[in-house]
Each structure stands twice: as C-alpha cells, then as structure tokens.
Amino acid sequence: MTAIIDYNMGNLRSVHNAFEKIGGKATIISDPDKLQSFDRLILPGVGAFGDAMEHLKESGLDEAIKAFIQTGKPFMGVCLGMQLLFEKSEEFGAHEGLGLIEGEVIRFDKKRFDTPHKIPHMGWNEVFTKSSPIFQNLPEHFYLYFVHSYHVKTADRYTIAITHYGYDFTSAVQKENIFGIQPHPEKSHKNGLQIIENFLKV
Known about the structure:
alpha/beta, 9-stranded mixed β-sheet
C-alpha cells in the first residue's frame, strides 16, 4: 500500500485521484506513527517552504519520514514535497529542510535568463531525463506540468531530469530510494500517470 502524506499543504485529492486512474490504491494519512506500515510514501505539497516544514515538525511527520526512508522503502516528493527533501530554502527567508539530499532551494534568477520569462514558471515544459525507474516506458524527453517560483540547486549525481526555463534547472532527483519531481505528475495527463505507475513498481 501507498500512503499520501497529509500535512495541511495542498493537492492531496488530485494526487489520490491520479492513483485511482491507474488502478492503484493509496491512503491519505497524517499520523506519523502509521507511516512505517506502508510500502511506499508520497509527499505532495503546494505553498511556502517554511510553512510546510513547520507543519511537518509540529506533527512529528519530519522524523517519521526520515525513519521510513532509512528502511529503504521507496519515497517520492512532488513539487514542494521535492523541495522539502533538501537542506535549506531561501523562500521568504532562510529555512531548514529535511536534509535528506544535499542542496538548496533558490528563486529563479532573472539575471540568468537567456530570454525574458515570467515568474512563477507555470504551464507545460519539457523534461530531459537520465535513466531512472520512475521514467520507465517514457521517451528521453517529454512534457509535464509545472507551477513554481523556486527550484532546486543540487549535485549532478542526484539530478535525473533537467528542464529549461530561462536557464537549465534540476526538475527531478534521485538518491537511492528517494525520488523527487518538481512538476505535477497528477496534472500531467498520460506522462504523469506513467511516472506514478512506475513509482508503484519500484
């Protein structure tokens, strides 16, 4: 069974509906003591990094997530959920993250843009992927749906997808059993559903 973590930060129902479309089973759960009973976890999220970390810490979900990951079972963060995996964020001040992957979350830097772009980055954009279990049965590059103003800055060894928006940025990561994806697979039609289906097979 798969658990979708509820910490009062966003798009739980759309993620749950995506599982139903592919015939998967998922449970929305907020009790940190029950996480270990699941086979895999998804941490979704929409909103501000600092607020999200506060909710995770107040509920005890932060330590429960770390304990789950230490078991080696698959874990995936989506959008804000991916950003929370990192050490820190500069969104509305300096905030510590879960520290599960080395790197930080930074705002899109307009000074680096090769052509003018609006922030937030919103809409369909192309992802250029490396080999990873979550990209099975997908081409090397394809389109997914994005909504974000901040992106991850991390080492190449963790980057499994790159997207161009003004400049190249990391749009998906993997570190052992931890996966993270910046776009919203639950809003990305066939390609996004394939990513969710692949995660269920990890």
